[in-house]
Design brief:
- The N and C termini lie far apart (60 Å).
- The protein has one domain: Serine Threonine Protein Phosphatase 5, Tetratricopeptide repeat.
- It has 9 helices and 2 strands, in the order αααββαααααα.
- Strand 1 (57-59) and strand 2 (64-66) form a beta hairpin.
- With 159 residues, the protein is mostly helical.
- The chain is globular and about 45 Å long.
- Strands 1-2 form a two-stranded antiparallel sheet.
Length: 159
């Protein structure tokens, strides 16, 4: 017990002397969200190393999302890989039952769709309304739809 107090005191003194900032877990998660949205790969790695939760929820209990959804929505495949490698749930569902794959596909982020499928995302996961990524892409229209549909079909996607 005495040894633990000494090491805690030593660490606290070192942090003070070096002028380091020790952030709370919620602050780390907020910073991680901003780094994800900004595409700051090095900062994402650093924050995860400092203890940010790759499965942290964004928002309140009724209107929430997760960090991996933010990366999927941004279409950032590299950050997506980092999050999954550090324990993010690739099948996490948001308030509407959407998975990161559904978010990436419905926003027509082809590279992110491919990355998620390579990482093992379930291609036929359904939202609370029973819609798959394939169905939502078809509903959405847009220019790169055919490319996204082709990739989804290649791995056995259903409507």
């Amino acid at each position: 017990m005495h040894q633990m107090k000494e090491s805690t005191l030593w660490f606290t003194s070192l942090v003070f002397l070096l002028g380091c900032e020790v952030k709370s877990a919620p602050q780390l998660d907020k910073d991680l969200l901003e780094a994800i949205r900004g595409g700051k790969t090095t900062e994402v790695k650093s924050l995860l190393h400092q203890g940010a939760d790759p499965n942290a929820k964004i928002g309140d209990d009724e209107d929430y999302n997760t960090l991996i959804h933010a990366a999927a929505e941004a279409g950032n495949s590299e950050i997506m890989q980092i999050l999954v490698a550090t324990g993010a749930d690739i099948e996490s569902k948001d308030r509407e039952g959407r998975t990161p794959l559904i978010d990436a596909a419905s926003r027509e982020h082809l590279d992110t769709v491919k990355t998620l499928l390579e990482l093992g995302a379930e291609v036929n996961a359904k939202t609370k309304e029973g819609k798959t990524a394939m169905a939502l892409v078809k509903e959405g229209g847009g220019f790169p739809v055919e490319d996204v549909l082709k990739v989804l079909k290649e791995v056995g996607a259903k409507e």
